[in-house]
């Protein structure tokens, strides 16, 4: 196999020459902080238990950044290192490698968190996490160094765009009637799916539709506040995550095994339900259970 940068495989060999069981465990734990499953635990925590507006912003930039990463990977079709040498593979992954989604999303998500809380120490932690998560992908042999570097660069570009534009976009949306907001979310979600129709995109755009519609309705009709005593926040999170897990596996069991078009449509619908639980269903339940309070 002809690699665009043959030295990159040699660099992976050099990094893995320092392998130890403790380092394997450490970098597998670090790389898990960049898995999509982790973000789907983190983002509801921000929405339900920290700050609704901050959580909504970071969820939106996460979903759109993930969509961009999926599209770029399919566009470039760049193989992973273990395709050339299976011995370097220390972690189970599939799909293409360029750009690294872990590197890209670590910059976008943790950078957005740091921007929201505007504290120097949060920026330090965000930078350290982005560096470690990206490096873990090289150590584990699932990305070439160039995959990680490009992921960091794209993440930095998207983060800069988010910082520069999100206030204006929010102000523009807030001027619109609720029906217009719902239409914008629906059109955007369906357009993104039509532009790049894959299973991963069906999941992402389904969540975008469900969460976007749910959050718009929540702000209009429920008046939810994410503050309150720590014990209430903890109970909210446990109930919400339990509901999310139950919906994910319960709806997944209802999926038929045949028909590609039908499968994609049902996948989109399932994830739209998950998104609506995150954006509306769980917060509404928290209010009914008196686990939160209305904003003043």
Defining key terms:
296 residues; mainly alpha; Vanadium-containing Chloroperoxidase, domain 1; 2 domains; 12 helices; 0% strand; globular
How would you characterize the overall build of this protein?
By secondary structure, the protein is mainly α. The chain folds into two domains: 1-35 and 75-165, Phosphatidic acid phosphatase type 2/haloperoxidase (Vanadium-containing Chloroperoxidase, domain 1, Up-down Bundle), CATH 1.20.144; 176-296, no CATH class. The protein is built from twelve helices and no strands. It has helices at residues 7-16, 21-32, 36-50, 52-76, 81-84, 101-117, 120-139, 145-174, 178-195, 199-221, 230-252, 260-288. Helix 3 (36-50) packs across helix 11 and helix 6 (101-117) crosses helix 8 (145-174). The longest helix has 30 residues, at 145-174. The radius of gyration is 20 Å and the shape is globular. The N and C termini lie far apart (63 Å). The model has no long low-confidence stretch (mean pLDDT 91).
Could you tell me the radius of gyration in angstroms?
A: 20 Å
Provide a count of the helices.
Answer: 12
Poorly predicted tracts of residues: none
* Structural class by helix and strand composition: mainly alpha
* Mean of pLDDT: 91
CATH class of the largest domain: Mainly Alpha
Question: How many separate domains make up the residues?
Answer: 2
Main sheet: strands, sense, barrel:
none
Sheet-strand content, in percent, reads under 5%
- The name of the CATH architecture of the largest domain is Up-down Bundle
